[in-house]
């Protein structure tokens, strides 16, 4: 399995993202504390900093379709998934994905929680169809400077 990491600098059509099945991670940055109300989960205060959300894209259009949906401007986005409520508040700064038919979002979420200083800011966020504590993880600020190393360890070494 191979992976890719791209910085979202105006990436709106996601041409470089494959239309095959896979797992993805969205890295978002909150410049200041915000309140978010993701559906029935309630209202939560989020601290400024880096967050990562993990998901799978196994349906029609694969990774390209799912990630393109997450990148839609606020005015064109129907709030459906938990992550939609966060992407209208915080920009997606980095996107990582790995192709493959296996659903690995739970493994990825568990791995991100093992980073020293990582925490789960909203219990069950993005995890309504599994038994994970959450698929949204608050990362320590210094982790983003090592993102390529972290992804390599995650995708290439731990879950090849």
Largest sheet: 5 strands, antiparallel
Order of helices and strands: EEEEEHHEHEH
Shape descriptor reads globular
End-to-end separation:
6 Å
Q: Total number of helical segments?
A: 4
Strand-residue proportion: 25-35%
Average pLDDT score: 86
Explain what this protein looks like in three dimensions:
The structure is a single chain. With 160 residues, the protein is an alpha+beta fold. The chain has one domain. It is built from 4 helices and 7 strands. The strands form 2 sheets. It has a 5-stranded antiparallel beta sheet. A two-stranded antiparallel ribbon has the order 3-4. The longest helix has 12 residues. It is globular. The model has no long low-confidence stretch (mean pLDDT 86).
What's the topology here?
Blueprint: E1 3-7, E2 22-30, E3 34-36, E4 44-46, E5 49-57, H1 62-71, H2 82-87, E6 92-99, H3 105-113, E7 136-139, H4 147-158
Antiparallel strand pairs: 1-6, 2-5, 2-6, 3-4, 5-7
């Amino acid at each position: 399995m191979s992976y890719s990491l791209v910085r979202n600098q105006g990436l709106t059509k996601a041409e470089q993202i494959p239309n095959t099945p896979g797992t993805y991670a969205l890295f978002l940055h909150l410049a200041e504390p915000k309140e978010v109300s993701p559906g029935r989960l309630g209202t939560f205060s989020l601290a400024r900093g880096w967050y990562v959300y993990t998901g799978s894209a196994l349906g029609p259009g694969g990774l390209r379709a799912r990630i393109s949906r997450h990148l839609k401007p606020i005015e064109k986005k129907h709030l459906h998934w938990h992550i939609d409520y966060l992407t209208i508040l915080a920009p997606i700064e980095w996107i990582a994905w790995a192709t493959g038919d296996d659903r690995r979002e739970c493994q990825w979420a568990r791995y991100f929680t093992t980073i020293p200083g990582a925490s789960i800011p909203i219990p069950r966020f993005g995890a309504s169809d599994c038994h994970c504590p959450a698929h949204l993880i608050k990362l320590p600020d210094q982790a983003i400077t090592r993102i390529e190393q972290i992804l390599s360890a995650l995708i290439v070494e731990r879950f090849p």
